[in-house]
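Changelog-linked ticket: iron/sulfur cluster example.
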Amino acid sequence: MEITTKPSTTIINKTGSWRTNRPKFIYDKCPACAICPRVCPEGVIYQTNQINTLGKLPYDCDLDYCKGCGLCAQECPFKAIEMELDEK
Ligand code: SF4
Ligand code: SF4
């Protein structure tokens, strides 16, 4: 019997409703360094197609599947992600 789950299981199971906090991506602070998608344990961070004031395509996440762990905000070197209370 398998008792552990594989990474990125939230791609199958929506976890958005479980969160206490959620990340807010501040597009104009993001120079698209691409660190956050590499640290997100759920693989739910993606590059947008909106050019910001830095002339870059900033990153965002799919809140349906983000579990609010805060790793992305912790590792962003440009403070372009803030964790805020998820008021659903
Ligand atoms: S808080 Fe950030 S690192 Fe954590 S699951 Fe959500 S998008 Fe991924
Ligand atoms: S780590 Fe921060 S600066 Fe880098 S892509 Fe993600 S949000 Fe943008």
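Closing comment: Example verified and attached. The helical segments are 36-39, 71-75. Residues 23, 40, 42, 44-45, 61, 66-72 surround iron/sulfur cluster (ligand 1) (CB under 6 Å).
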